[in-house]
Amino acid sequence: MKWLVWSVVGCAYQAGSFADYQGMSAGNRATFGCIDLAVARARDSEEGALIDYFVGNRCDKRVTIDLSHVRVVGRTDAGAEVALTAYDPREELAPKLLNADWSGRARIEYRGAGKLASVCVDLAEVGGAPSPEHWVCMARSSQ
């Protein structure tokens, strides 16, 4: 089953709202320059975890969104740290341009381990430029 989805919606985004036509975004929120970003652990798969991303462009210019370089690690119940890799069999995960005042959502499956107690995502490079690390950790989903 393919778990890479990226959609850019054609409706206006209001800076700081973390919302689009689907409603409020779930998860941990951060802002990096022009980018409002929310990330949530959707649920687990047999091989890893599904992560939901919400991205809003709060500026009046197009910005690059790069989910292809996000670093993700999982922690097992025993405490071992495992690097996870985006499942992208069609090689669709690449930097995308997000129009001014627009938003988009992505659901990406990260593989590398089975059941994980937590998943941590470094959001620092989503804006396409190296930044200081910004890790967000999420416990096992109850779904």
Description:
It is a single chain. By secondary structure, this protein is mostly beta strands. The chain has a single domain, classed as Sandwich (Immunoglobulin-like), CATH 2.60.40. It has no helices and 13 strands. The relative contact order is 0.29.
What's the short story on this structure?
The chain is mainly beta and 143 residues long.
User: Biggest sheet, in brief?
Assistant: 9 strands, antiparallel
Q: Which fold name corresponds to the CATH topology?
A: Immunoglobulin-like
What percent strand? over 45%
Order of helices and strands: EEEEEEEEEEEEE
What's the CATH architecture? Answer: Sandwich
pLDDT < 50 runs, ≥5 residues: none
Q: At the first level of CATH, what is the class?
A: Mainly Beta
Q: Give the averaged pLDDT, no decimals.
A: 83
What is the end-to-end distance? Answer: 18 Å
Please indicate the count of domains: 1
Helix-strand makeup class: mainly beta
**Radius of gyration, in angstroms, nearest whole number:** 15 Å
Instruction: Please bin the fraction of helical residues.
Output: under 10%
Count the DSSP helices: 0
Overall shape: it is globular
Number of β-strand runs: 13
What descriptors fit this protein?
143 residues; mainly beta; Immunoglobulin-like; nine-stranded antiparallel β-sheet; two-stranded antiparallel ribbon; globular
List the helices and strands and how they pair.
Elements: E1 4-9, E2 19-20, E3 23-24, E4 28-32, E5 35-44, E6 48-57, E7 63-65, E8 71-75, E9 81-86, E10 96-98, E11 103-111, E12 118-122, E13 135-139
Antiparallel strand pairs: 1-11, 2-3, 4-5, 5-6, 6-11, 7-10, 8-9, 8-12, 9-11, 12-13
